[in-house]
Amino acid sequence: MLDQPLPAEQSTQEEVSSEEEDEEMPEDTEELDHYEMKEEEPVEGKKAEDDGIGKENLAILEKIKKNQRQDYLNGAVSGSVQATDRLMKELRDIYRSASFKGGNYAVELMNDSLYDWNVKLLKVDEDSALHSDLQILKEKEGADFILLNFTFKDNFPFDPPFVRVVSPVLSGGYVLGGGAICMELLTKQGWSSAYSVESVIMQISATLVKGKARVQFGANKAGTRPPRKTASRGAQGTGSHCPHPHPPIPTQGHPPSSLDAVEGQFFPPFLDSFARAAPIASWVGLLINFSSREQPPLPLGPLLASDRLPPRSY
Q: Which residues form the UBC core domain (predicted)?
C-alpha cells in the first residue's frame, strides 16, 4: 500500500498547492519589507529634523524633551500641547538659522522652560547711536548687548508673546517705563500666528534703531529692572499696555504728559472724561482744596427743588 503511487488527481492538486504557496511567498516578503520601511521612516525624519543644529543645542532640545516626559509622569504638565509643539519648532528653526549662527542674537531658556526666554541682541545697526552707546556700555560695565525677555502664554501662537527690555535701561525706541516694547506687532490686533519668533526678534532690533533708542547710563547703576507691577499678567502680550503703538510714546526720563502719569490719583468713570479734558494743574489743585476742608454730610432724602443745582448753560 505504501509503495503504490498516488492518484494523478491528488498529485496534481498537491503540485498546484505548492505552486500557489511559492507564488504567495514573495507577496508576504514584500509586505514585510514595506512594514520594515515604515518603521525606519521616523528615524530618517528625525535625522533630517536635526540637520544644521549643533551638538550643544541638540543636547538642550533633548533635555527639554526629557523634562517634559518627567513632568508628564509626575502629573505636573505646564502649558498646552499646541504651544509646546510650536515653541519646540521655533527653537529648532532658530538653532539652524543663519542669523543665530552668525551671532546676531542668542537665546537662553529660563529654568529650561519653553515659555520663558531670554534673548540677547548682540548686533544692531553699526551706524546707529544705539550701537555707539553699547560700545560705551561695554567699556563701563563689560556688556554690549540688549537683554530681552519673551514670555509665552498657553494659547501661543494665537496670542503674541509679551516682550520687555531687561537691560540696559533704554529711552526712546518705543520702550515704555517698565521695559515693555510698544509695537503693533506685539498686540492682538497686529499679531499673526504665522509670525516666527526669529522674525519678531529681528523686527524688535530694527524698531529700536528706527525709534532712536538710547542707553540711559545713569539708570543702569541700579541694575536690571523687574517687570512693572502695574501691568497685570492678563494684559501682557495683548497690547492693552500699549494702546497706541504709533506714534512714539513718552518713555522713562521724560515728564508725564497726561493725567494718567500723576501718581496716586484716581478718578471714577463718571469724572474720567472731565478729568482728561481739563488741565492737570487745575484738577490737582481742586483735589487738594477739596480734601483739605471738612465736608458736610450727604443728605439722606431726595433733594429739594431749592437744593438742586441750576442747569448749566452752554
A: 82-244
